[in-house]
């Protein structure tokens, strides 16, 4: 599957794996893919990501969402527009401060760290994005587009920071 | 009553993108709430069997999913 990935995209995925390791995360999440893309960004992805999306801003937005049971500001707004108020439920979670990630599952031999279902979808979605845009190689921005299209936590966090699918497509000149 | 009416109205006229995002968000939230509630019950000494009955699943299912948390 990786043979059509550009070198930059492969480097971004490697960085994502390393970031997951540093975070002691049992899986490689979309969040880690975004950190990978950000740290390996070239001229195109840098222009698309803009100045608001920094590692610090991402970390902070993900941490905030995690304390709320994996809900971004964008998710909260969508729920509100549906007439659903989850604030008291998420406040109870914040109070408990979720020990889930503080206790990573350690494996014997410890090498293998799988991609989460969401990040797997993002990587295969990137292939579709590249094809749709008529690109020869799968670039980091195609992974970014797939994350945004996926509708998971990471897409909500990016939307919180002012980036959405249509905006990225426009920035790439692909309508 | 008003809440129900508002909810129905919102659900009927809503942008599908909002509606679908809300559903996906609720699904994630649900997992966290379940984990937190099971943890709380365990801390209060509830046996797996009783937790399973309240959740409406088998004892094996709840044990397999939550024994590590």
UniProtKB/TrEMBL annotation, chain A:
<protein>
    <submittedName>
        <fullName>ClpA/ClpB-like protein</fullName>
    </submittedName>
</protein>
<keyword id="KW-0677">Repeat</keyword>
<feature type="domain" description="Clp R">
    <location>
        <begin position="2"/>
        <end position="175"/>
    </location>
</feature>
<dbReference type="InterPro" id="IPR036628">
    <property type="entry name" value="Clp_N_dom_sf"/>
</dbReference>
<dbReference type="InterPro" id="IPR004176">
    <property type="entry name" value="Clp_R_N"/>
</dbReference>
<dbReference type="Pfam" id="PF02861">
    <property type="entry name" value="Clp_N"/>
</dbReference>
Automatic annotation (TrEMBL), chain B:
<protein>
    <recommendedName>
        <fullName>Homeodomain-like domain-containing protein</fullName>
    </recommendedName>
</protein>
């Amino acid at each position: 599957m990786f043979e059509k990935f550009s070198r930059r995209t492969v480097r971004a995925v490697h960085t994502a794996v390393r970031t997951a390791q540093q975070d002691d995360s049992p899986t490689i999440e979309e969040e880690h893919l975004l950190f990978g893309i950000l740290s390996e960004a070239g001229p195109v992805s840098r222009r698309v990501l803009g100045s608001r999306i920094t590692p610090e801003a991402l970390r902070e937005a993900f941490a905030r969402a995690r304390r709320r049971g994996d809900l971004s500001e964008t998710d909260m707004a969508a729920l509100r527009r549906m007439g659903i108020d989850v604030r008291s439920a998420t406040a109870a979670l914040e109070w408990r401060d979720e020990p889930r990630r503080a206790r990573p599952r350690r494996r014997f031999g410890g090498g293998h760290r799988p991609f989460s279902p969401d990040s797997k979808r993002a990587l295969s979605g990137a292939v579709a994005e590249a094809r749709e845009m008529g690109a020869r190689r799968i670039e980091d921005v195609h992974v970014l587009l797939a994350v945004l299209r996926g509708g998971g936590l990471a897409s909500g966090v990016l939307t919180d920071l002012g980036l959405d699918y249509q905006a990225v497509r426009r920035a790439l000149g692909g309508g | 009553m008003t809440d129900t009416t508002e909810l129905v109205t919102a659900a009927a006229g809503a942008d599908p993108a909002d509606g679908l995002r809300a559903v996906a968000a609720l699904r994630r939230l649900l997992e966290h709430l379940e984990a937190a509630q099971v943890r709380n019950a365990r801390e209060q000494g509830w046996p797996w069997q009783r937790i399973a009955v309240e959740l409406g699943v088998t004892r094996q299912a709840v044990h397999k999913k939550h024994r590590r948390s």
